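Please, structure for the following, as tokens.
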Amino acid sequence: MGSDDHKLCALDLGPTSPANISFLTGRNLRVYNEDILRAAKDPAFLTRQEDGSHRVDAEKFFAENLAYPAGQFDAILAWASPDYMPEELVRPLVDRLRIVLKPHGSLLALFHTKDAGPDSPYCRYHISQPDVLEIEPEPGFRIQRIFNNRHIENLFQDFASRKFFLGRDNIREVVVIR
């Protein structure tokens, strides 16, 4: 086995960010990237409901997305994905993340603390230094909901621990350990 076989693995659920890749690989992590929100907008995953509306078919979506073996990742950067995901994908997303995260692995998620309405921008996050996160607004996504602390605790109830931190710009940082 080569030395790469023992590298820690991180999954970044946002759009590809050269800054994140550089930061994480500079710390000897193998980096995987999956833009989960863009994938959720793919019309191939939509099913028509009886009332004529469309919903994302979660089973079909996860058959093609986040299809990693159990316990592959030591760390996951979920960013604010749950705030922008279609409702029918949120719980299955968290369940899938728990499966692909190694025991004692860490997951970082960001949640809005108040609704700024449709003008609440989706942002790309770039790690530029160990204590600096650059934020770049990106059009094309609307916030779907605001999770309160209890809802976040319920989402991550199957994880070993959850820690909440109040960040800047009406963002709550949540670190969960599997």
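The chain has a mean pLDDT of 92. Residues 3-177 form a domain with the Rossmann fold fold (CATH 3.40.50).
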